Amino acid sequence: MPDDGRLPADLFLDLDRSGPVPLYFQVGSRLEEAIRSGRIPPGSRLENEIALGERLSLSRPTIRRAIQDLVDKGLLVRRRGIGTQVVHGPVSRKVELTSLWDDLQAGSQGPSTKLLDRTTVGASGAVAEALGVPQGSAVLHIRRVRFADDAPMAVLENYLPPELLDATDEELAAHGLYQLLRMRGVTMRVAKQRIGARAASREESKLLEIDDLAPVLTMSRTAYDASGRAVEYGTHCYRPDRYSFEVTLVDK
Amino acid sequence: MPDDGRLPADLFLDLDRSGPVPLYFQVGSRLEEAIRSGRIPPGSRLENEIALGERLSLSRPTIRRAIQDLVDKGLLVRRRGIGTQVVHGPVSRKVELTSLWDDLQAGSQGPSTKLLDRTTVGASGAVAEALGVPQGSAVLHIRRVRFADDAPMAVLENYLPPELLDATDEELAAHGLYQLLRMRGVTMRVAKQRIGARAASREESKLLEIDDLAPVLTMSRTAYDASGRAVEYGTHCYRPDRYSFEVTLVDK
DNA sequence: AAGTGGTCTAGACCACCGT
DNA sequence: CGGTGGTCTAGACCACTTC
Question: How far, rounded to the nearest angstrom, does the alpha carbon of residue B53 sit from its chain's CA centroid?
């Protein structure tokens, strides 16, 4: 059998052993690129971990970690006694604007945002519980509409901790919450989301340019920083013809 | 500071070093149990990895893996130079029937299912592409209604590979797809899902006992086995007042 | 029997955080 | 500065699959 899964030799020529980027990340990224581009075709077998490690002068745990990351992303499948294969399914498809993170990560570059409302309010029961602050303490409440290609896509309602009370309207419209929080030393690490559906309210239907009571996709999220403190609580609703969520599950 | 994060001494007394259950899994499970039960309270600090390893007579990588699994589940947060903490947020909340896997995993025990339709059809364009089979090849098509507490919750439409062509109606109603496929040697490893919303069709609204054109939550999924072959394609719609999806995201 | 991934060990050095 | 997690190494033994 000539198919020994030997990878293209030039894939890993430029590994940087002194820079700050971890080796497992460099290996994983190059491998992911090769798979998504189709250069390593679906269903093809990879070299075994030890051989690959020797060719790259890397230890087996380092190789394993790089491969495991791609397994977690759903790009590779491992079977004991068999080997590692590229999945057959639709791999090359990029995650476009349906990623679950993009509300946080886009912001500055992505679709535009219009600020509808921005007030400082005392945290009510549900908000106070979600953010983990005392009832009645001051939090920032904002309401925005997100546009993609000049068409309304979502209505975003958020409650934020005191750090952002000083943000200007211009900042809120231009920079996205994730970025604003980062600039103030707050980085999100964990988020819990609930996705559902309901009929649009009269106001929402107007903003989204859909019929009253038409279906909307809803998502509510609480995000936590590295210390475990809640730093964002939001309730969003989306036009279902312009937005959907994509999730890849891996059996562990 | 007396808070050295020292864990309860009896947590790890019964580690089985000879059985088939990996040590990192045993450690992780016990830790998860202690966190979810509140025995290790939110915000509390854990011992550092090396100390914990010494106390349990385990190497640092083994401890790290156990902890990392809980970080990936959103139960713990690690910070370099600081330590590992239990997140502050709502942790103890069980995942009940909103897990993204339960359609696959419940089946036998969970809510009941009524089989509406079961036919062998030639794979049409979209189905053939999703399942990765030739156009027109025989696949099993089934349509079911899922009930929870005797109330309709979802309409499930699935296309399945030839392995299941011989399944009886009783099996289909009683055992759940995941279990039936497992019994035939097929195990799912990766699934890609898309979650959206739309208005219910007349037939769906009747089955779900809701108004015509009322909102429904939709999910379509393609599942792959260990070899990367597609083994299930399904389109489901849910009553949004009885079902929603819960997702935990971790920044990696 | 040979080859694969799955687990585990016992170290090492580094980057980052607090004091 | 000491303590923490982040990375990396070089081995070892095992379980599983295929031949």
Answer: 30
B86, B103, B127 - which closes a domain: B86
Pair A8, A31: CB distance under 8 Å: no
Residues of chain A with pLDDT under 70: 1-10, 89-111, 164, 173-175, 252
**Quick check: A96 contacting B, CB < 8 Å?**
no
The pLDDT of residue A94 is: 39
Domain holding B187: CATH number? 3.40.1410.10
Disruptive mutation site among B87, B178, B193, B208 for chain A (greatest number of A CBs within 10 Å): B87
B92 touches chain A (CB under 8 A): no
Which bases of chain D are under 7 A from a protein CB atom?
2-12, 15-18
Clarify whether residues B18 and B56 are in a common domain: yes
Residue of B240, B248, B71, B88 whose CA lies nearest to A101: B248
Range of the domain at A170: 91-246
- Which residues pair with residue B182 across a beta bridge? none
Chain CA centroid to CA A145, Å = 20
The verdict on A19 and A71 lying in the same domain is yes
Say if A251 falls within a structural domain. no
Residues B100 and B218 in one domain: yes
Task: Please name the residue ranges forming H helices in chain A.
Answer: 23-36, 49-56, 60-72, 102-105, 125-131, 169-175, 177-183, 202-208
Whether B15 and B72 share a structural domain: yes
Nucleotide nearest to A82 (CA to C1'): C4
Number of helices (H) and strands (E), helices first, in chain A?
8, 9
User: Which has the minimum average pLDDT: A70-79, B25-34, B166-175?
Assistant: B166-175
Say which residue, B100 or B234, is predicted with more confidence.
Answer: B234
Cβ count near B183 (within 10 Å) = 13
**Gap between the Cα atoms of B249 and A64, Å rounded:** 23
Q: Which residue of A has its CA nearest to B195?
A: A245
Same domain, A154 and A62: no
Q: Which amino acid is at A114?
A: K
